[in-house]
Specification:
Number of strands: 5
Strand order of the largest sheet: 2-3-1-4-5
Order of helices and strands: EHEHHEHHEHHEH
Number of domains: 1
Oligomer: single chain
Number of helices: 8
Largest sheet: 5 strands, parallel
CATH class: Alpha Beta
Structural class: alpha/beta
Helix content: 55-70%
């Protein structure tokens, strides 16, 4: 079984992935952040490093999906390949931070990969306001994230909402992070568990 957690920067993907992996005994697959050779450079000079970063993520995420399908285990994945292609790359292109020829090259590569992709059995989308995202980004204190602008987060949020409104690659569960503080409140985490059980196992219906 392949479960995936999607959401904007600071929405709580890694926290929820860790908690759900422990609760269900699923194997977690995390986004490559600490070992990412491009991320810090990207936040220093987005235009120079945008293409490199997105190709790195695309390669990493595609490799994860292949491993999940071959492994035969129950896996929960922190962020999906679809977010890179539908949200982050086109946002960088529209902002003038990724040249058109690079974006078209990237989009062509993703289109080819899609022929070998299968959507997750359940996608959990963490919906959060920009204010909540800013608060949670500040809490985790990553130096390279200090330069993230409100406009950048807002543009990403708008793209996330559009993508989710059109998502049709499998079951979808939306969690309102503004309301349900699953990382801090056990009752809120319990609510998330109930919703997941309902989607995956037909319980609580």
């Amino acid at each position: 079984m392949h479960i995936a957690v999607a959401g904007n920067i600071g929405s709580g993907k890694t926290t929820l992935t860790t908690m759900l992996a422990k609760h269900y005994g699923w194997e977690p697959m995390f986004e490559s952040v600490d070992n990412n050779p491009y991320l810090a450079s990207f936040y220093e000079d987005m235009q120079r490093w945008s293409f490199n970063l997105q190709v790195y993520f695309l390669n990493n995420r595609f490799r994860q999906v292949v491993e999940i399908r071959r492994g035969g285990k129950d896996v929960i994945q922190d962020r999906t390949i679809y977010e890179d292609a539908n949200i982050f790359a086109p946002n960088l292109h529209d902002m003038g931070l990724m040249p058109t020829r690079d974006f078209e090259n990237y989009a062509s590569l993703f289109e080819l990969m899609c022929q070998f992709l299968q959507g997750p059995d359940l996608l959990i989308y963490l919906r959060a306001s920009v204010a909540t995202l800013v608060e949670q980004i500040a809490k985790r204190g990553r130096d390279y994230e200090n330069s993230i602008s409100i406009d950048y987060l807002t543009n990403l949020n708008n793209r996330y909402e559009k993508w989710i409104s059109e998502y049709n690659s499998g079951k979808l569960l939306i969690v309102d992070v503004n309301r349900y503080k699953f990382g801090e409140n056990p009752e809120d985490f319990g609510y998330v568990i109930e919703q997941i059980d309902s989607e995956l196992f037909g319980l609580f219906k």
